[in-house]
Structure formats: structure tokens, C-alpha cells
Design brief:
The chain is of the alpha+beta class. It is built from 15 helices and ten strands. It has two domains: 151 residues, NADH Oxidase (3-Layer(aba) Sandwich); 179 residues, NADH Oxidase (3-Layer(aba) Sandwich), CATH 3.40.109.10.
């Protein structure tokens, strides 16, 4: 209970008796450095700083005396973009990877297993260990901006490859400009298909937080400024969205984004099932943290994975045999954008 009190005390919250929480307050609380005195609740907070689809945060945590369970929260699934819940389980894997580094920093080594659609982490006491990847957690973000277009050295590519390889998960790094352009064609075709899908567009808009007040009220979703867009009142943004969020503009933005990147990373699991999707998430999160530690940025360009026919076409192009691509990420050196937010531990612990 002391850990919960500590974690809750640092979290801004709305109150009739207190001044409204600002976006800056919420960012500071969300991305604060690890506080070991927070115990398992603090490990949960660091786990929630992981990448996840649409920032829906589709997870629930259950605490034991020396364990944490991470289960999917299907009330936060996105059936239009993720009909088979692939991204939900990838998100659980991303959270599990963050949990591992946070727990080790508190002298707890987790043993992870996947059973009954749940990631189970059981802890044993060890000497505390703080890694470079732990230090990267509060600085990581999916940066949807143009990068500087410069290549990454072979030494750094090898570090990224090691980080992004997991149990039953391989990573393909694409740095050849011709191949990158060909993968871009799949991204653009997937984006076009999604933008012509009314259900996809409605779902996407429902998860966009168009201004600071919306972001702080929900502590989830895709904050407009975190994507390089201006903050607007929802009534105005709703009217402007069809005028500015067009196929041509978005496709041009994705082409320019990939052209400005040093390369693409494609994550591929041996099998297309929930357990392997969790491992994909862990590998992707390690890759993201390693990139952050190396001073690099990354962003998801998952459209050819999310459109079923393109997923198989991309697999054929990449020569994957019977395997399928799970995630596509661009990476390179780029700017920092405003941070997304996360719900506090009290809201995600069952």
C-alpha cells in the first residue's frame, strides 16, 4: 500500500478544489524518472510507458506478492485497424519489456511466460541493475516527423539488429534506397486503403486528442501535437479534418518521412499467434530503446501489415517464405516532439 500511495501522490489529477492540471504537469508526472520506493506500482508505471497501438493502452495489470500479470484490455481494442488483436498482444510485449528493465533496477529479476492470453512475470531477488535501455525509457517516443536523411553506421546498425532480435523473432534492416522506395509503395497503398475505409477513419478520429485539455482528460490517445500537428478545439478540428487529412497529403507525408529516414526495420515472427506477437512487442521495444540510447528516433509505418492482402504481398517481396511481417518501423536521427500521456497505475491495475 505504501508503494501505491507514493505512485498516486506524484500523479496530477483533476479536483474541484485544485487548479486544473496542465499538459506540462501531466507530461512531467507521466515520464518522471524511476522511483524505486514506488515498488511494484512503479514498475507498472514504467511498463505503461511502452509503445502501443493508437496509445489505447490496451492492458490490465494484476499484482501478486512477487509477480505481475499483464492481460489484454479488450475494451480498448481497435477492430477496424486491428481485427485479430495482433497489435493488442504486441502492445503487451512492449509493456513486458519495459517491466523487465524497471524490475531489474529494483533488484527483481522477472521470469516471463505467456499463458491464457496473459504475460506472467514472476520475480526473484537479485542485485539491482540499471541498464542503458532503462535510462532510455523516459526519453523514448514514436517520432512522426521528418528525420535528417543521414545514414546510420554499420556499428549502430548491428546494435539495432541485436536489440531487435528476439525469441522466435527476426528483424530485417532495409537501408538500400531502392528497396526502401519499394517498401514505401506498400505503405502508401495500405494508407490509401485505410483512408477509404469509413470504419477505420471513424476509429482513428475517436482516438485523436486534438488539444491539451482532451489529452489530459483521458491520458490516452493520439495527441495532435505529438504528431507534429497544431492543437485545435474538437469542433474546429472535426470540420477541418476532411480538408487537410487527405489521401494525397498523407501519402506524400509517408513518402517524405521514409525518404528522410536512415532505414526501415521489419519484425518477423516464426509463427502468427498471440505468444509470438508478444515476443514481437518485446523485440520492437528493445529496438526502440536501443535506438533512443543511440540518439536515434523511430516511427511505425504499419499500413502494409494492417491490410491483410498487403501483408502477404510484402512477405513475398521480402522473401519470408511462410512467415509474415509483424511490424514495419522507420528510423533515423530527428527532432523531439511533444510527449503522449499515459493513464496512472491506479487506472490500469485490476
Amino acid at each position: 500500500m505504501a508503494g501505491l500511495a507514493c505512485a498516486s501522490a506524484m500523479w496530477p489529477r483533476h479536483s474541484h478544489a485544485a487548479a486544473p492540471v496542465t499538459y506540462e504537469d501531466a507530461v512531467r508526472a507521466t515520464w518522471a524518472p524511476l522511483r524505486p520506493e514506488g515498488g511494484l506500482h512503479e514498475i507498472v508505471r514504467y511498463a505503461t510507458l511502452a509503445a502501443n497501438s493508437h496509445n489505447t493502452q490496451p492492458w490490465r495489470f494484476t499484482l501478486g506478492a512477487r509477480s505481475i500479470l499483464i492481460a489484454p484490455d479488450f475494451s480498448r481494442r481497435c477492430p477496424a485497424v486491428d481485427p485479430n488483436d495482433h497489435h493488442v498482444f504486441v502492445s503487451l510485449g512492449c509493456a513486458a519489456e519495459n517491466l523487465t528493465h524497471a524490475a531489474l533496477a529494483m533488484g527483481l529479476r522477472p521470469t516471463l511466460r505467456f499463458e491464457a492470453n496473459t504475460v506472467v512475470a514472476e520475480f526473484e531477488s537479485v542485485a539491482a541493475e540499471r541498464s542503458r535501455l532503462l535510462a532510455a525509457i523516459p526519453h523514448r517516443q514514436s517520432t512522426r516527423a521528418a528525420y535528417d536523411g543521414k545514414p546510420v553506421t554499420n556499428d549502430l546498425l548491428r546494435e539495432l539488429e541485436r536489440a531487435g532480435t528476439g525469441e522466435g523473432v527476426a528483424i530485417l534492416l532495409v537501408t538500400d534506397r531502392k528497396q526502401m522506395a519499394e517498401v514505401t509503395d506498400y505503405v502508401v497503398e495500405g494508407n490509401t486503403s485505410q483512408m477509404r475505409d469509413r470504419g477505420f477513419m471513424d476509429e482513428l478520429e475517436a482516438w485523436i486528442r486534438f488539444n491539451e485539455d482532451e489529452a489530459v482528460t483521458t491520458m490516452d490517445g493520439l495527441f495532435s501535437r505529438a504528431s507534429g500537428n497544431p492543437a485545435l478545439p474538437r469542433w474546429l478540428a472535426h470540420q477541418l479534418l476532411p480538408l487537410v487529412f487527405t489521401e494525397r497529403r498523407e501519402n506524400d507525408r509517408y513518402r517524405a518521412g521514409i525518404e528522410s529516414s536512415a532505414g526501415l526495420a521489419v519484425f518477423v515472427a516464426e509463427h502468427d499467434d498471440e505468444a509470438h506477437w508478444v515476443e514481437v512487442g518485446r523485440a520492437c521495444q528493445r529496438f526502440a530503446l536501443q535506438a533512443t540510447a543511440l540518439g536515434l528516433r523511430y516511427a511505425f509505418v504499419n499500413q502494409p501489415v494492417e491490410v491483410a492482402r498487403l501483408r502477404r504481398q510484402l512477405a513475398t517481396y521480402l522473401g519470408l517464405g511462410g512467415r509474415l511481417p509483424d511490424l514495419v518501423v522507420r528510423f533515423g536521427a530527428g527532432p523531439e516532439l511533444p510527449k503522449s500521456l499515459r493513464r496512472p497505475p491506479a487506472q490500469v491495475i485490476a
